[in-house]
Each structure stands twice: as C-alpha cells, then as structure tokens.
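Students often ask what a 'structure token' actually looks like in practice. Rather than answer in the abstract, let us consider ABC transporter substrate-binding protein/permease, a protein of 492 residues. Its sequence is given first.
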Amino acid sequence: MKKKYGLLLAMLVAVLMMVVPLSNQHAQAATDDSLEKIQKKGVLVMGTSPDYPPYEFQATVNGKSAIVGMDVKIGQKVAKDLGVKLKIKSMSFDSLLVALQTGKVDMIISGMNPTPARRKNVAFTHTYYQGGYDIVINKTDTGKYKNKDSFKGGTLGAQTGSTQYNAAKKQTKNTKVKGMTSQSDLILALQSHKLAGVAMEKPSAEAYVSNNKQLAAIPSDFNMSASATSSAIAFRKGSTSLVNKVNKTVDQIKKDNLVKKDYLPAAGKYLKTNTVNTSMGHYWKAFLTGIEYTLIITVCSVFFGFIIGIVLALARMAKGGVLKTALRWLATAYVEFIRGTPMMVQVMFVYFGLGLFVNLPALTSGIIAISLNSGAYVAEYIRGGINSVDDGQTEAARSLGMSNGETMRFVVLPQALKNIWPSLGNEFITLIKDSSIVSIIGVTELIYQSNIVRSDTYRGVAPIVVIMVLYFILTFTASRILNYFERKMQHD
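Now compare that with the structural description of the same chain:
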C-alpha cells in the first residue's frame, strides 16, 4: 500500500489537534451530523494522490489533463449514491490524512489500507479491494531474481513508510532497502540501475510493466496481513452516519464485482491512451500551466515579502520606549523563527494549520507561506542596506527640516535599495526555484506538472530535463532583467 504519513506530518497533526478546542471534539462525539452536512453542502471533496496507477493517476482526456483510475470511479459512485457532486483535490499522499483531519477534504480514496495505526486517527469503510504485492525489475534481470529472497547483496526499493517498505525491511536478509516518496522516482531509479527491484502492489506493477517493455514483474512472497493488502475509504473520526451510508455503496460495488468488471478495465484504457504520444511537446500545455503558476507565486511572494521585510527591518531598528523595544524583540523573534524552520513545514502549517479556522485555497496558502518566509530574509537585507548608508546623509536631511519618516523614505531607503539590489535580485531568483515546494499541497506549478507528465508517460528523465531547461530560462531571464536595472542605478 501507499506510504503512511511521515513523522513530520504526524508531529504537525499532533500540534494542530492540540489547538482544536476540546469542546468541539465532545460536540462531534455527541451529535453526528456528518452525512447531513455533506448532503446539505452538495459537494463531496475527495482527497487523492494521483501517482499510483491504476488506482489514481493523470491522463489526457479530450485534450485536458484529468485524474482518472479505479479509485476515481469509486468516488464518483459514492457521490452519486449520496446525491452530491464529487470534487477531487490532489496532493501528496503524506498530506492526505492531515487534510482529512483539518477539513480540507471530506474523504480519502487513494489506495489507502485500513491498518490499526490509521484506524486510531480516522474512520474507515468496509474494504473495496483486496490486492497483493509484486516486485518490478528490469527485464534483463528476469533470470536473476525470483522473489524477495533473491535480492541478497542488492538494493530493493519501496515507497517510504509503506507496508511493502516495512515488509521488505523485516522480511529480507542481507538486502539494502531504500525508500523514496513516489513510484515514478522508484521506477526511474530502477531503470538507472540504482535499484535492483521495486516492491509495489500487483495492479500498479502490472500497469508499469504493461506500458514499459523494459520492465518485468515477479512475485514478492511477502507475508502480509489482510489489512495491509486491502483498500478502504477514509473519513474523519466520528463520521458514523456518513461511513454507514457509504458502506452500502462499497458493499454494492463488491457484490456486483464492479472493480474487476468495470473500474480496472476503464483505468487500463487510460493507461494505454497515455502511451500513444509520450513526446514532451505533446504536454506543452501542462508545462505552460506550470510556468504560469510558478510566476504567479514568485511575483506575489516578492511583492508581499518586500513589504513585510521593510516593516520587520524598521521594527528591528526601532529604539526608544517600551513599545519600540517590544516591537524590536517581536521582529527579531519572527526573523529568527522563520529562518530556523524549513519552508516546507511553514507551507504545511499555513495550509493545514490555518485551515482549522479559515479554509484557504492551496495557491493562496502557498503565496502566504512563501511571502512570510521571504519577508524574514528581505528584512535582513534591508536592515543591512540601511546600516550601510552614511550617517551624514541622515544628519543632512534632518538639518534641512525633514522629519524622521521623510528622511527614511526619501533619503535613506532609496540609497539602501541601491546597495541591496543584488541581494534582492538573488532572493527573487531563489523564490522562482523555491516555489516548487508548494507542489506538496497540490498547487500546479512546474514540479507538480512534471510529476503529472511522468505519471502520464511513464518516462522518468525527459520531464525532468524539460523543467530543468524551463527553470533555467526563467532564472536567466530574470537575472538579465535585474542586472539591467542594477546598471541603471549605478549610472544614476
């Protein structure tokens, strides 16, 4: 099954749950209106990670990229039986459980297995699919490997934290087990001979093998429990009425054998369609969309980050009474805290943490998080620039009758900006690349789009080369523009 949410996200959930009022939890337990809420809202938001064919993956449908697969079919069936519309929200698998617990999604259908550990945090329906595990290898190694015991002295790969990863660690001897975050990365590592094999679910293994003639699948022979090889739908804890209603749909799907009769064959058709044209030019619209969102995030973050930076810099330099001292300490604490925590954690906290109180879209959350992060660094650039301006400039302005505010606005800041322009330009270039972090919450920037193309085409290297070139074009162009204005400032 897919990987469990990592230690980092587990810690984040713990923090978020601590800030949720206990009275709300007791109220939910006392009155379960989960089914009524969904039907009243008229929309059922399904969270999924579309990198796991044939469960869920991206495909080109009528010229547009869409999320398809057997899990999507199940989601559509559930929504239809509830009498509501289905809305699919894409994000990394590690983020799904946090998204469910913070209300970003109403349910998870993403090849998730109902393990005892997960049942402590979410409610599961009856299982809708029972699978197994294979190991994908390079076809040239078919005679060399037979099962998990054949990899002694070699390296076996699996998704980090997944049940097959844990099984490989426990049930193999003298074998190095390497974890990665996505199936496409694992297949790329396999084809570049960094891995000898990749453990994954049988349907996924069959999907990759049927669409890549260089790969083959062998039995894993892992000793797995039923819960570790089955899939179920996850809902928030306490959603008893909703789970009971959806269980009727799940039972009907199993009774009519819809997964094998309809849903898997339909997914197979999309898998074949994906490999009809795998040229990178065929996906120019996806890359163009990625460039658009990357630029939107970068430009907005630079603008707001600059404003935040000015405020923080002035606050850090404030001198005098108690209020100014408090502002100085607060600004210093903010800068140190932001610079001392990873931007990825900040993005997740804004999206999921603020999601407890305000339901912010992923793009907005990404811009807010990157702006707040950029502001801390810009504040130090500006503070350094202000300090670099000779004190005589301030004294001259004051002697002309300018107030402190006018002196700062018309004399000091313009000169400081000229001095720190290279540093601000470097921050802009850095933000173009750092915008890729927001792909973890489902923002369709360049990294996200490249993962879509990799999922569509089963080609690992080509999409990476394309986005490397695109990032270089963006950063090089921005660098030339910034250098032009820097020369203009020097001449002035």
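One point worth highlighting: The first helix runs from residue 7 to 19. Ask yourself how you might have guessed this from the sequence alone, and why that guess would often be unreliable.
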